[in-house]
Amino acid sequence: MTAQLIDGNALSRQLRADVSARVTALKAKGITPGLAVILVGDNPASQVYVRNKVKACEDTGMHSLLERWPASLSEAELLARVAALNSDASIHGILVQLPLPAHINAQKVIEAIAPSKDVDGFHMASAGALMTGMPGFWPCTPYGCMKMLESIGYDLKGKHAVVIGRSNIVGKPMALMLLQQNATVTICHSATQDLKALTLQADVIVAAVGKRNVVTADMVKPGAVVLDVGMNRNEEGKLCGDVDFDGVKAVASWITPVPGGVGPMTITMLMVNTLESAESQLS
Ligand code: GUN
To answer: Which one of 103, 196, 214, 222 is CB 3.0 to 4.6 Å from 242, fit for a cystine?
Structure first.
């Protein structure tokens, strides 16, 4: 078997076209969706992510506000910026790029964002809403993974999904989203004993560890769907995921590539969340 690719670039283009059309409709009613992105310090990866987020706003017709601050910014100053953006009517989404410098308590900053503008879905209120099935913003990366499964018409009901990784940003919300679609979910992590025994039972594997070759062909049940959230570099500096793509694609039925898989979907879902935040002003 050779797996079919779930193309995150192609799916993103489709979804962003829909976002653009809805942005145009909203503008006609006098509302331009606006996203504020705050970057503190000069982490090179963060600079790339932030640039891509601002560009996605431009491409979809949204307003974006990029605030760059030196790493010396104090926590109190950052909290003051968040408070100002919370009460800025032209801003519907606030994103503070992580990681923050060590002297700033990232959780405290996240909790300062108004839940109604928490388009990253990292606020406790957003996490609680996801957990209880109430309306709220879903974290963009796992949300993008769910859209990828939807795009191939995959019915999760009764399927066994194995999530590798338990971060607040990906692993934990991913597990809750899969559960909401009636999958049986196993969360694996660094203390899991015999990861392979579990992944071999999986109909769906989501790899979100941040380490190369966490999932190899011998760990995958023939026909499984494999979503790769990893963003790593190999010895040659080439971007690669957590999954041994060349090996696993011979066993899986569907697989996401890196690059061009989950990555673009994360930004696309950020656009969707920001748009929906602005749309909610109408109701
Ligand atoms: N750093 C890495 N991924 C993300 C993300 O999705 N949102 C924010 N705010 N920071 C990140």
So the answer is: 214
